[in-house]
Amino acid sequence: MSDEKPVTFAMRCMLVILMAEARELPNARIADRGLDLKKEYRDRLVSRGWITVRKVGRGYSLELTEAGWAEAIGQLSADPPAGAGAGGAALYTVLNRLRGFLDRSDLAASELFAPAESDIDVRIRKAYAEIAVSAGELVSLAALRPRVTGAERAGVDAALVALSTAPDVRIVPESNQKTLSAEQRDAAVRIGNQDRHLIAIGV
Known about the structure:
The protein contains 10 helices and 8 strands. It has 203 residues and is an alpha+beta fold.
């Protein structure tokens, strides 16, 4: 069951920070910027399906889910929550103006907050490590793409093409094309004159 407790201003700020950074962030780094979100509130964001929390060493790293991205983008057109004070009024004034700029420019928020391509490379490698049982195992791009959050399809495709030249990466077609589902065909990346459906890293 999802968390029905109110979403606090600090929780909304966490979503906005993660959206602006468009990548996984250590909680300690966010705390250094002045937002030290306690475990109770992090857990509530997890319960709502908006962030993932991953144990890294002695600390934790946070990242938006797809639902979290949608909620964070929604803040661009939201009113400041009750009790947000002068800082909240200022923040939401800027966010609302940013929403207007995106609308006038016919830009999606995901285009503005897209990670750099080099960061997408890191995300692809991280997503692969989460799926593969061992290094060098072939993994379907259909399974990998949903884990590379916050990046446009074109950016992921470009990063995959660039990664295909790395000495430890293989991106290959499915040998038995008849077994491919529609989802697997759609997730393929075009490299050269071939659609490629599988990736292996650490070969």
